[in-house]
Amino acid sequence: MERVDFPAAWAAINGGVNMIKLKHIYKSYSLGDEQVDVLHDINLHVKPKEFVSILGPSGSGKSTLMNIIGCLDIPDSGDYILDGEYVDNCTENELSEIRSKKIGFIFQQFNLLPELTAYENVEMPLLYHKLSPAERRERVERTLAQVGLADRMKHKPAQLSGGQQQRVAVG
């Protein structure tokens, strides 16, 4: 089956490429012998700088949808186009690169490493980029200062309030 170039077609109609485009996304999970359909024919278009809320009752598929958008999970079928590029058939390394450069998450549980300081938790993802130690230090210090935690760099998550932990996670 030949793929339609959705980004180009949408750009012609819409006057610009969507940042996120989901087209006919389906996702199910096996629960023992039972198959549970979680997402059924999801279509979503998000333009650059547009804010979107995903609402629904518990168990309605919000987290599954966010995991697909965040390249943490893949749909069973459908097309996912991020910033004009298909991500459906990306390798795990390519998905990791996308998550590193194009996707940001603030998890409900902040997922900070408890044995690391605020500085080290912010620095961790930067270790995967080819930055010098001085560049990493400058970025981490600037980021923590921007979120009001310059004086908490050496504190571990257990020594920070929930709001402070969230700001470290955003960093």
Automatic annotation (TrEMBL):
Report what the protein is called. ABC transporter ATP-binding protein
Q: Which Gene3D superfamilies match?
A: P-loop containing nucleotide triphosphate hydrolases
Q: What's a Gene Ontology MF term here? A: transmembrane transporter activity
Instruction: Name the SUPFAM superfamilies for this protein.
Output: P-loop containing nucleoside triphosphate hydrolases
Q: Which GO CC annotations does the UniProt entry carry? A: plasma membrane
Task: Outline the extent of the ABC transporter domain.
Answer: 20-171
Its domain of life reads Bacteria
Q: Which Pfam families match?
A: ABC_tran (PF00005)
Organism expressing this protein natively: [Clostridium] leptum DSM 753
